[in-house]
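TL;DR need structure tokens for one chain.
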Amino acid sequence: MPITLSSRFVRRTALAGAAATLSIALAACGANFSAQTAKPYQAAEGTNADSGSIKVRNMLVLATADGKGELHSAIINDGSTDDTLVKIEQAPPGTQDGQAGGDQPGQVTFSEFAPIDLEAGTSTMLPPAAGEEAASATPTADPTATPTETPTADPGSKGIAVTGGKPGQMINVVITFGQAGPITTYIPVLTEDHYSPTPQPAEQ
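>> reply
TL;DR here they are.
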């Protein structure tokens, strides 16, 4: 004698099967390597890079359309030993760091500065906040050199001046420290109105 199933039972079984299928499909999507939650995400506009206990955060250049700008970043030393920021310069042609270079500018120069202290357990802002000790620009060795050869930092901002990088471009740079190994990375050039500044560290 054939078994007759009620229409209510059939509907419940179909709904349960559909729910199970949807659950498996969603789990497969979430486990996929290209799933959105599995991708690294950098909320800031600038570049993040590490060298041992030294962590560069949100490094970028704010510049005008004619290529005159200033370096912005937070540099964190979460180690137990003091260090110094010695130099930032454009990487030599052909230098690779594994990142997409985007629209590369021609010659870019950074103003010279005295080594900047990176004390253990502190965060150093570039440019420094008003009233803090700033990177002091070093006069060029050649008094006839033009600003495009070796720019000097703006005495008002006491930051690190950058010449040659225009908004929308990426600059491949080498960041040199006194103790930590150098970092080679690309940093973006933005305009002032497309920049979200790095939050100031909370006062203790």
